[in-house]
């Protein structure tokens, strides 16, 4: 019996290959975008973890040469003999025929705990690592090292484009005998150590970078991608929902017959559920493969973006990680299950002698309309309530869900009202029929139009957020990088000399002091700045009291970044305890985008009183050409060229990276819209079969097939245009939620919202183009419908 | 003469080559005349009606409507003919589901550019549709729908009305009532009427009765 029932179920798909294709393609596309984004996120996170584990950057203090890029190995030996718990590291680029590889040499015996995978490798013992020489690298990098005499072990936990090996092997490979790049300091050091200046005067200590948690830094970026993936999936699920609804309606007769022939309802429902499961796994599998392709295409851009924006090294190659392909399959099954549950429920409740005639699935106008309207109003009201309550990140995401689903449910009702208005105002007979007929088509097209609404709203919302971020970031770069050049890595002893040298040449020198601290119970950086006109002109505040900078300069007030203000619940005039008995009122809150760490700024003088031992780690220099500065400081003080950073080129680079960020966003925009366009195409194709009996009488009364085809095309365009108009305010609301709520809750800063009318107009045209392309095929089919097919509508013996 | 059909042939593609449906049909019909066309299923009745109405084309022969060769018209020409001079009443009613009764009745008249509100109102009353004018086709019974189809055809004031089994989907009592109304109203307009029917009773009400057998008039 089971086999017979399955054959009967499968027969439906054989008879309706278009529906079969729609189901598979809709679910596969939905899964593809979701799993593609998940693959990118998983790859990036794996790279962050690998970088942290391999390089130890940001986790331990380090000793680096005051000048030059290497230190003698004897210095390391001297420090160890003096009791310093340090571990050697050599770093350099190895050029092979297959490309460049960053070689990192570490000493597994002295490296601070769990810094690298060395020693943890399965088949390699420590002896062979130290003597024979073994390199660890990910698969892509290992391939580039195949010509080396050393064994290369593939280890996915190593950072991309990096090979890890013993320090001695690295010295040989890089041709740096007896030279080291840096020394890693163990967190625990013995008491009573001789001072560093005494044992190794050529070295300087660099504190662990508190802000190097790239996973946290890049969270906003990945959140955007995830939001896009989820919305794309929702759009795809609308296609699947529509298809499943149609399939189950058309099978009512078969279900009745099967039950009449003795198939138990429970068995039938179970087999239909199994059928759904098998098909969703098949579609999910196709989707995962497509997702892999999408991710592989987008990953290089994403990697470049993340490296440029956050300094995060992300592998350009994609691995088939179970975390994302399993989640892709799971969401395909879950989505199909959700879409099919309602249909299965209706079948389960259908009386055995129910009418076998399809209930005009696509024409069931008005059925449940009020229920849908009530649900929409309720969801939008909940969304408004959450917006007013402003209750946290989870609530912000709930708000997004309520807003989008509520708007999608409201769409058919709003469109119905607009079309009714059009019908009442129509003058010509064709116009009147057009509006009336369009109203009638609305239920059949609703799901596709909802998908289009969500796709376009997501585009408007996310692009508004990203573009607002871009504008804000450009402002922020101008604000922060106002100096012509920055000098980094200068030790305290040489600072007065350099400063005097620069001032003699007419430059303004702005030293920046910094200590890691806890402010108002929150981890933060306290900074000391030489406040002057440059700060007052360039920095802008999110909120500030008058004369904020004057008060900071006078040592009477402190300013903090927005993250710290929001996390610590501080605002203007609140008193902030800065440590060392210093307590100042808050005079201003400044934007500090992209920085996860709280920050407070006081005057250089005040800072010096509280932290007399701290020396500036960075100088901003105004009024001198960076190139001149670089050569002058090199000649006079022996500073390496890398110590002087030309900020105009950093700005240009950052903006270039931003444009690449938009390449990724634009690609996702187009893909989401393409899915929505596909939804319209499939809906129109499905409807075209049902449409013939409706159009044939109009043809018989004197409209040509070409004219009917044109009407069909115009109908799709009108519906798409109305949907696009409604998507605009929805998208802007989405952008507001992302900027004013999600970003604030997730990252601690509120980005100003800018509007981009030209972008929206372009997007609207793109939407119309997608709708026109989707409607073109059904319209052409209409124009080419054989007369015999139209006449069959009138045949008495149908 | 309003309609002259001479030597019309038509065949359809079959699995084993063309299957002839009409093999040299000749007939004529003038304004004010009524004619029935009977025959077994597959005898070519509906095909002939479709050809006369400009819905289908001929393989051979001529169909002259008011002296114009319908066979020589292109699709736009045939569409114009259907719009202005011919109205078809189908067994399946074929109303436009998105329009209410009143709009359905007005529809073809407006297409033909001959809408007459008084005429529409009179037809609605004459066919007993006054209480249903704002209803949609799905809300009507079969008899009511066929009355709407008849009203739609008459409201356009065509010169030729073609009816394909106009009462085939109705019970006997309703069929008789609808036929009476149709004949009375067609008589008032002076149009020519050609009815395809299986029913001898319906055929008997026409001025002339023709029979089609194997694609030829008997």
How does this structure look, described?
The complex is a heterodimer of chains A (798) and B (218). Chain A is elongated. In chain A, strand 3 and strand 4 form a beta hairpin. Chain A is an alpha+beta fold and 798 residues long. The relative contact order of chain A is 0.11. Helix content of chain A is 62%, strand content 14%. In chain A, the strands form 3 sheets. In chain A, strands 11, 12, 13, 14, 15, 16, 17, 18, 19 and 20 form a 10-stranded mixed β-sheet that branches. The longest helix of chain A has 54 residues, at 647-700. Chain B has 218 residues and is an alpha/beta fold. Helices cover 35% and strands 28% of the residues of chain B. Chain B contains 7 helices and 10 strands. Chain B has helices at 45-52, 75-84, 101-111, 117-126, 142-155, 172-189, 200-204; strands at 3-14, 17-29, 34-39, 60-65, 68-69, 86-89, 160-164, 192-196, 208-213, 216-217. In chain B, the strands form 2 sheets. Chain B has a 6-stranded mixed β-sheet with strand order 6-7-8-3-9-10, with helices on both faces. A 4-stranded antiparallel β-sheet of chain B has the order 2-1-4-5, covered by helices on one side. The longest helix of chain B is centred in the last third of the chain and has 18 residues, at 172-189. The mean pLDDT of chain B is 89.
């Amino acid at each position: 019996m089971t086999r017979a029932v399955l054959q009967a179920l499968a027969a439906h798909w054989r008879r309706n290959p278009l529906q079969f294709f729609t189901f598979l393609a809709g679910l596969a596309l939905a899964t593809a975008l979701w799993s593609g984004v998940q693959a990118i996120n998983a790859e990036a996170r794996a790279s962050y973890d690998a970088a942290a584990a391999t390089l130890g950057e940001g986790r331990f203090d380090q000793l680096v040469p005051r000048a030059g890029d290497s230190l003698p190995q004897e210095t390391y030996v001297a420090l160890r003999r003096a009791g310093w718990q340090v571990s050697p590291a050599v770093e350099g680029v190895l050029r092979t025929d297959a490309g460049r590889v960053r070689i990192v040499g570490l000493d597994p015996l002295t490296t601070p705990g769990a810094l690298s995978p060395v020693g943890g490798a399965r088949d390699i013992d420590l002896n062979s690592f130290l003597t024979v020489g073994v390199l660890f690298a990910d698969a892509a990098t290992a391939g580039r090292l195949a010509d080396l005499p050393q064994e290369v072990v593939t280890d996915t936990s190593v950072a991309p484009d990096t090979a890890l090996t013993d320090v001695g092997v690295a010295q040989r490979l890089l041709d740096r005998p007896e030279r080291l790049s840096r020394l890693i300091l163990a967190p625990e050091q013995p008491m009573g150590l001789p001072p560093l200046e005494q044992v190794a005067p050529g070295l300087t200590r660099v504190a662990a970078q508190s802000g190097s948690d790239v996973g946290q830094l890049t969270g906003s970026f990945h959140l955007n991608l995830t939001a896009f993936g989820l919305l794309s999936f929702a759009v795809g699920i609308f296609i699947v929902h529509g298809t499943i609804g149609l399939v189950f309606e058309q099978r009512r007769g078969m279900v009745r017959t099967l039950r009449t022939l003795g198939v138990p309802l429970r068995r039938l429902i179970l087999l239909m559920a199994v059928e759904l499961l098998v098909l969703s796994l098949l579609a999910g599998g196709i989707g995962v493969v497509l997702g892999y392709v999408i991710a592989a295409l987008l990953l290089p851009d994403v990697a470049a973006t993340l490296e440029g924006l956050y300094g995060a090294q992300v592998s350009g190659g994609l691995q088939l990680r179970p975390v994302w392909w399993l989640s892709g399959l799971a969401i395909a099954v879950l989505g199909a299950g959700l879409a099919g549950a309602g249909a299965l429920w209706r079948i389960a409740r259908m009386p055995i002698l129910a009418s076998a005639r399809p209930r005009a699935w696509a024409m069931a106008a008005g059925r449940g309309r009020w229920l849908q309207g009530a649900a929409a109003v309720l969801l939008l009201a909940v969304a408004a309530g959450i917006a007013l309550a402003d209750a946290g990140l989870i609530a912000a995401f709930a708000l997004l869900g309520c807003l989008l689903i509520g708007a999608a449910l409201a769409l058919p009702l709003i469109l119905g009202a607009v079309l009714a208005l059009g019908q009442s105002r129509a003058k010509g007979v064709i116009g009147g029929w057009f509006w009336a007929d369009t109203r009638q088509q609305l239920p059949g097209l609703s799901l596709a139009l909802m998908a289009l609404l969500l796709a376009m709203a997501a585009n408007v919302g996310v692009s508004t957020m990203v573009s607002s971020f871009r504008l804000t970031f450009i402002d922020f770069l101008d604000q922060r990088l106002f100096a012509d050049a920055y000098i980094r890595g200068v030790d305290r002893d040489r600072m007065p000399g350099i400063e005097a040298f620069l001032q003699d040449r007419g430059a303004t020198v702005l030293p920046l002091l910094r200590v890691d601290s806890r402010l108002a119970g929150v981890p933060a950086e306290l900074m000391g700045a030489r406040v002057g006109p440059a700060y007052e002109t360039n920095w802008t505040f999110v909120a500030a009291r008058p004369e904020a900078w004057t008060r900071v300069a006078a040592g009477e007030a402190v300013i903090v970044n927005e993250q710290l203000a929001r996390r610590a619940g501080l605002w203007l005039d609140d008193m902030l305890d800065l440590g060392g008995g210093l307590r100042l009122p808050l005079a201003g809150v400044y934007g500090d985008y992209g920085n996860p760490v709280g920050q407070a700024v006081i005057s250089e003088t005040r800072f010096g009183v509280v932290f007399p031992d701290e020396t500036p780690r960075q100088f901003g220099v105004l009024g001198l050409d960076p190139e001149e500065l670089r050569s002058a400081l090199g000649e006079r003080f022996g500073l390496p060229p890398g110590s002087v950073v030309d900020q105009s080129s950093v700005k240009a680079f950052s903006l270039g990276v931003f444009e690449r960020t938009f390449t990724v966003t634009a690609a996702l925009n187009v893909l989401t819209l393409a899915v929505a366009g596909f939804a319209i195409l499939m809906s129109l194709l499905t409807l075209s079969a049902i449409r013939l009996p409706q159009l044939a009488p109009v043809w018989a009364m004197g409209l040509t097939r070409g004219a009917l085809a044109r009407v069909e095309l115009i109908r799709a365009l009108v519906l798409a245009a109305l949907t696009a108009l409604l998507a605009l305010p929805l998208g802007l609301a989405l952008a507001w939620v992302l900027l004013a709520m999600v970003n604030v809750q997730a990252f601690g800063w509120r980005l100003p919202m800018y509007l981009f009318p030209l972008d929206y107009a372009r997007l609207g045209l793109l939407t119309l183009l997608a709708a026109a392309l989707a409607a073109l095929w059904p319209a052409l089919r209409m124009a080419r419908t054989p007369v015999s097919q139209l006449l069959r509508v009138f045949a008495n013996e149908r | 003469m309003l309609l002259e059909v001479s030597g019309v042939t038509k065949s359809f593609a079959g699995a084993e080559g063309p299957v002839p449906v009409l093999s040299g049909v000749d007939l004529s019909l003038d304004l004010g005349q009524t004619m029935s066309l009977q025959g077994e299923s597959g005898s070519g009745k509906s095909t002939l009606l479709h050809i006369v109405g400009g819905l289908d084309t001929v393989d051979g022969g001529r169909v002259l409507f008011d002296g114009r060769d319908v066979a020589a018209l292109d699709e736009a020409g045939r569409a114009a003919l259907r719009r202005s001079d011919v109205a078809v009443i189908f067994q399946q009613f074929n109303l436009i589901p998105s329009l209410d009764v009143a709009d359905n009745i007005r529809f073809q008249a407006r297409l033909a550019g001959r809408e007459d509100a008084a005429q529409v109102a009179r037809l609605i009353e004459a066919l007993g549709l006054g209480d249903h004018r704002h209803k949609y086709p799905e809300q009507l019974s079969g008899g009511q729908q066929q009355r709407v189809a008849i009203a739609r055809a008459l409201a356009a004031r065509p010169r030729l009305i073609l009816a394909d089994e106009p009462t085939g989907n109705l019970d006997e009592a309703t069929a008789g009532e609808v036929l009476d109304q149709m004949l009375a109203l067609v008589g008032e307009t002076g149009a020519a009427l050609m009815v395809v029917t299986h029913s001898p009773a319906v055929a008997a009400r026409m001025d002339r009765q023709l029979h089609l057998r194997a694609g030829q008039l008997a």
